[in-house]
Design a protein that fits this description.
about 35% strand, about 800 residues, disordered C terminus, about 10% helix, mainly beta, 42 strands, single chain, five-stranded mixed beta sheet
């Protein structure tokens, strides 16, 4: 039996680390040893040596692992493990239980937390396989190593920086200055994580650095200490061999030029520089008088120097002090000549006849030349550069001049204040500014640097100017069509008609200042139907090239359009516009077209179309239900309009005269409600009625019976009859009845003839009423007699 150690699953490591050369896979060294195992199978005493096969290997675990699950390290296995869970694996040593854990059944080893190779590069552990029931070791304890695999998580550091160095002035190119060393805490034996490359960020073209050793040498000959004595050099150390993605560290080296005897002794010229308000000279007018009579006033006669100089009197010695009022410029004017008058301050009128009490002197002032610092031709500079511009690209230039008469040369440099200034470099002679590395607008959109101009003949005289560098966004996205992409053309369209205006959009920022141009592709220039017209305001239109279109011949036209923008670098794209042919009115209003063609010009989406159609369907359903309910209600109204005594109830709010009151209301109207409206009588007037004998009619009359049976049959076969029981009332007059109508609907029956003679007995108040009803009674009696006679 044998315990196999280090069966490492390489995929677990390679999947967590990006591919790179020389990943340092585990070296597998197979060693075969012999060991002793238990009793022989045949039961004989003693032990038998068997061949033990080791897979002796280092386990590897990735440092700084950030996964949510424990990191898989490897697997332990013994030949005695037949997969029946009879073997238990144990782990001891560095980090066992706290950092590393083992599955006692399967032998899988996991790391419980993230490890740092720089803190501890490897762990030594011991493994053993024991019987799960008896805890008896099945094999001797074996020792193995788990090595922490390095990742590039440490930048190079200059432990001794900042540095100070000295080199003699006027040294030739390649003179050794100093050497810098950066250390990287990553594993130097694994990959390029600790492979450091040196480069110079600031200090060119005066010095250079060896990329491998870090040795700094002079790169410019004849550097003069009298011109510039101090230099500040910025050195960068970058791991991963200087490749993109490597980590970097920087340090500063202050280099001084030591003096050599390269200048002979010379006499210096004595010069005097005057500032505004200072005295540039003195003059004195002598007065023989004394005291108050000897006080003198000085004035400058207006002329050449009146604006540049002024003069005051010293009260103690009566001297005239000439004062500078404005700055002098030797390059503009080298000398001034003017006159000064001296007069007594206190004149005695008695002696004015002796002559003018004043004197005039001519003063000449020579302006001496003084070295001045260089002057930039602009107070500030603004430059633009696109992001991701290659290093070394010139983005602009500054210019400074020595305005002195000698007009000496000027040298330029960047006043390095922070690491941000290392993005740029400047040519010391020409003043051209170039990029030193790639710029990222998303990181820094604007850089502010200071340029120093130094007078070569006098390095003490310097001037500075501010330079602002704006990092512009490169044109990353091509323009594309803005909605709508589809439109329609009327069948009666005219040639030259603009049927649709469209625009473009671009995802690049900023959107302000974007310009788009539109045109038809070269292969579509022969299109006889439509063309593209650019309006010059970021919009264009679709223009017809012929009269009339026929939908039955072609319903849809596809029109390609090329869109260009004004970005850097310029981008272009080709979009396709869809034109549908639709029927329109003479004024251009849309009449007939597919649903898509109707709604697309409005810019409706598919979801909006579905919602509109759903609303239309709901409205149609509501209309159908409303019509159905109206029809059903109409049928019920027709049924109820028949003379149904259950539904016709008439209410009266008056009190009758009792059973004898037969003239107030005709009870026969209750059988037919139509009579209520047709025969309305006034209660205060006695109605006129015709009397006539009404012979009784037998209820068993054959014509009445036939009429009722006929009506019953009609109701039985009537499909429109209501589904409930109903009472039908018939007012049948009969056929050839001698008594005329038998119904009480049309006739007001009065069974008893009223005698109104008793009204005469009620007194004078009722005489008029008795006369009225007495006459009517007589008239009715006469007419009755006449009828009987006939």
């Amino acid at each position: 039996a044998s315990l196999l150690l280090g069966r490492l699953e390489q995929s677990s490591v390679s999947s967590l680390r990006p591919p790179s050369p020389a990943l340092g896979r585990s070296r597998v060294a197979r060693e075969h040893a012999r060991g002793l195992v238990g009793p022989m199978r045949n039961g004989a005493a003693g032990f038998q040596r068997v061949k033990r096969g080791w897979v002796w290997n280092q386990f590897f675990v990735l440092e700084e692992y950030m996964g949510s699950d424990p990191q898989y390290v490897g697997k332990l296995h013994t030949d005695l493990d037949g997969g029946h869970s009879a073997v238990k694996y144990t782990l001891s040593g560095d980090g066992a239980g706290s950092i590393f854990t083992i599955d006692q059944t399967t032998g899988d080893i996991h790391a419980l937390r993230s490890l740092d190779r720089e803190a501890k590069p490897y762990y030594t552990l011991r493994a053993q396989a024991v019987d799960i029931d008896t805890n008896r070791p099945l094999e001797p304890e074996s020792e193995f190593v788990i090595k922490v695999q390095d990742i590039n998580d440490n930048e190079p550091k200059f432990l001794e920086g900042p540095y100070t160095a000295t080199v003699p002035e006027m040294s030739p190119v390649g003179t050794y200055v100093t050497q810098v060393t950066a250390t990287d805490a990553d594993d130097p034996t694994y990959g390029n994580s600790a492979r450091v490359v040196y480069s110079i960020l600031h200090g060119q073209p005066y010095f250079s650095v060896d990329p491998k050793t870090g040795v700094i040498k002079t790169a410019l000959p004849n550097m003069d200490r009298e011109v510039k004595e101090q230099y500040q050099v910025l050195i960068q150390a970058k791991d991963m061999g200087g490749q993109l993605g490597g980590l970097a560290g920087t340090t500063t080296i202050n280099i001084s030029l030591s003096d050599v005897n390269d200048n002979p002794p010379r006499f210096s010229k004595s010069e005097c520089s005057s500032s505004v308000g200072s005295a540039v000279g003195r003059i004195k007018a002598h007065d023989l008088d004394v005291g108050r009579n000897a006080e003198v006033e000085y004035t400058i006669v207006p002329g050449d120097g009146g604006a540049m100089f002024g003069i005051t009197t010293n009260e103690h010695n009566q001297e005239g002090i000439i004062i500078l009022k404005r700055p002098l410029d030797y390059e503009s004017k080298k000398a001034y000549t003017f006159k000064v008058d001296a007069s007594n301050a206190h004149l005695d009128p008695r002696y004015q006849s002796f002559g003018a009490f004043k004197d005039t002197a001519t003063v000449k002032i020579n302006v001496l030349d003084v070295d001045e610092p260089p002057v930039f031709n602009k107070p500030s500079y603004v430059m633009d550069v696109y992001e991701d511009t290659p290093a070394g690209t010139i983005i602009g230039a500054v210019t400074a001049q020595d305005l002195d008469a000698s007009s000496g040369p000027v040298r330029y440099s960047i006043d390095w204040k922070s690491d941000m200034d290392s993005y740029f470099d400047i040519d010391p002679v020409e003043g051209t500014i170039s990029t030193n590395e790639l710029l990222d607008r998303e990181s820094i959109a604007r850089h502010n640097i200071s340029i120093v101009a130094t007078k070569l003949s006098n390095p003490v005289l310097t001037s500075r100017v501010a330079v602002t560098v704006n990092v512009l966004d490169i044109n990353e996205f091509p323009p594309e069509l803005a909605s709508p992409h589809e439109t329609f053309v009327c069948e009666n369209a005219k040639m030259g008609q603009v049927i649709q205006t469209f625009g473009a959009k671009d995802e690049d920022l900023p959107t302000a200042g974007q310009r788009f141009s539109f045109k038809s592709p070269k292969d579509d220039m022969k299109n006889k139907n439509f063309t593209i017209r650019d309006f010059g305001n970021n919009t264009a239109g679709i223009v017809t090239k012929r009269n009339g279109f026929r939908r039955r011949l072609q319903e849809i036209y596809f029109l390609p359009v090329v869109i260009d923008d004004n970005g850097y670098p310029p981008k272009s794209s080709t979009g396709t516009l869809t034109v549908r042919v639709c029927g329109c009115e003479s004024n251009g209003s849309l009449l007939t077209c597919s649903a898509e063609a109707i709604f697309l010009p409005v810019g409706l989406s598919t979801g909006a179309l579905v919602a509109i159609l759903l609303c239309i369907v709901i409205l149609l359903v509501i209309v159908v239900l409303y019509v159905g309910l109206r029809r059903q209600k109409k049928k019920e109204t027709l049924m109820s309009s028949k003379e149904d005594i259950r539904d016709n109830v008439i209410h009266y709010d008056d009190e009758g005269g009792g059973e004898e009151d037969t003239h107030a209301f005709d009870m026969g109207t209750l059988r037919n409600p139509k009579v209520v409206k047709e025969n309305l009588f006034r209660r205060d007037v006695k109605p006129e009625m015709r009397r006539g004998p009404r012979p009784p009619v037998s209820q068993d009359s054959a014509d009445i019976r036939d009429f009722i049976n006929q009506r019953l049959k009609e109701h039985d076969v009537d499909n429109a009859a209501p589904p409930y029981d109903s009472l039908a009332t018939y007012a049948y007059e009969g056929d050839g009845s001698v008594a005329e109508s038998l119904s009480s609907i049309d006739t007001l029956a009065v069974d008893v003839e009223e005698d109104y003679d008793y009204l005469d007995d009620w007194g004078p108040r009722f005489k008029t009423l008795a006369g009225i009803f007495g006459e009517q009674s007589e008239t009715q009696s006469d007419s009755t007699t006449t009828e009987n006679t006939h």
